[in-house]
Design goal:
mainly alpha, Growth Hormone, Chain: A, membrane, transmembrane helix, MFS_dom, transport, MFS_trans_sf
Length: 471
Amino acid sequence: MRLFETRPDDDGLPGPERRIAMLVLVLGTLMAVIDTTMINIALPSIARDLRIAPSRAVWVLSLFQIVCAATLLLFASLSELLSRRRLYIAGLTLFTLASWGASLSGSLETLLLFRALQGLGAAATLSIGPSLYRMIFPTRLLGAAMGMSALVVAAGYASGPTLGGLVLSVVDWPWLFAMNVPLGGAALFLAWRALPAEPRRRGGFDMFGAMFSATMLASFFLAMDTVGHGGSGQKIAVLLAVSGVTMWLFVWRQRRASHPLLPLSLFDEPRFTLAVMVSGLAFVGQGLAFVALSFLYQQEMGLSPLQTAWLFTPWPLTIMLTAPLAGRLADRVNPTALSTLGLVLLLTGLVSLALLETESGVVDSLWRTALCGLGFGLFQAPNNREMMSNVPKARSANASGMMSTVRTVGQSLGVALVGVFLAASLGSVQASLWLGCAALSGAVAISLRRIPLSLAPPRDAASQRPSPRSD
């Protein structure tokens, strides 16, 4: 396989070690992504068994997402002090042990505690995953590696609900958490063996920046969660105000800290900055579409939850098929032009869904969602390559954390926009898809602006082969 070919002038790991290290990243990502989508299916069972209201059971999912999102930047910066190898292993260990604890929980409070710990473990691994791909693979194969990463995430989202349903048809919900224990053990064994060591940065840690960052993101996601559950406008306004103030304090701190949590010099490179902006808008559109289509299919088209799940399948399935090819192409052709083409196809697909008649048949819906998946698959891996290749390797962990945070914030904002649209009775659910089209139109406009910049010679920093393990 081309991903594991070794050339004399390659940076990154040799082919055989590269294969094992990639397996570690695949297992870690799949556990974190599938865990989120599987638990959606189990919430009614959890509410029944723990004798709690369904509204309280939703916190089993929400708390995991809030903790994970709020600590992504923190762990990306912390990896420079601990080394990415140590942090990834620690994150895997915490996630695996917390999964075991969640499987033994007999009350909501205990389950929420272990879900919060799972969120911390997932954040530690997801925050530095893309930067580890850059460390493990040679620069010439970075696009292909990003394509494989996108495939793994899409596979997790696509298989999670089905896997959760199959498990729950045979055993009770605690087994959904228990499944992570043997997988986590295998990933830890391979991680100790294969993940490369690296020099650790000397110096302090931006504790105030970490506090401001966590408060900023946690209050933002709590506000989005409140919007999604129809909470009071006053509470939403207070949470957004807290998020806005701490964001200002965070930026102020980053300009003065000797070792900032998120070095603002990353944004001196316009290609990185524009890629971040495009990614955020694209995930707003995707997050909005996923929620709006669920309501459209079930409430306005009268389809069952199972039929709705099947209508969603072409989206992640097409990403799985397209992303690896797009990643390989991004190593050979202009990745910015390729990701822009993907955005245009994604926008076209979402416009076609917004124009979908409620009397339309299943086939008429399937090709439209497949077109969206094709566009997103062509967009994601080349755009991720653009982000990771336009920062120095020494800053790749920070860029990785930024990439994960932007993805999570974008998706949550898209979900919240649907909630606002429905709460304000601004029209039919289908009409809310035009909000996603507007976000994607902005992404296309920005992406077209960056094509001339991408024609200049790349400024990818040269790198050295990772050092032998010393820890």
